[in-house]
Amino acid sequence: MRIGELARATGVSRRLLRYYEEQGLLRPVRLPNGYREYAEGDVAAVRHIRALLAAGLPTAVIARLLSCVHDDEGGRMTAAACPGVLGHLRRERRRIADTIERLQTSQQALDTLLTTAVGRSSRPRPPSMGRPRPDGSGAV
Question: Which end of the chain, N or C, is less packed with Cβ atoms under 10 Å?
């Protein structure tokens, strides 16, 4: 199938399919006229790529894992026991967990700032910091 057919079958843009090829995730056959020819199995490969990207894996890791991923009888993606797969998956999970922890720390810091800011904005203002005069020349 040509790139347009694969794009329609997967819901992924042609540009993104070319990017997957550049990253070594897809390897279409090049016809004499330069057109790409994709196999039926590339539909499943694109689905797997999308799922692995959604799981937070970078394309470099996906390139190493993709040949070890397949669908089970229920159509669910599963990983085979290829050498190194578990190590890659564990490292990526640890990287994502570390990122989540850093983001939660940032969120807590922002929550603290918001709490103190809300607390200050609900206190009465000193007279010198009252509402501005209509002409903008200081407080009323």
Answer: C
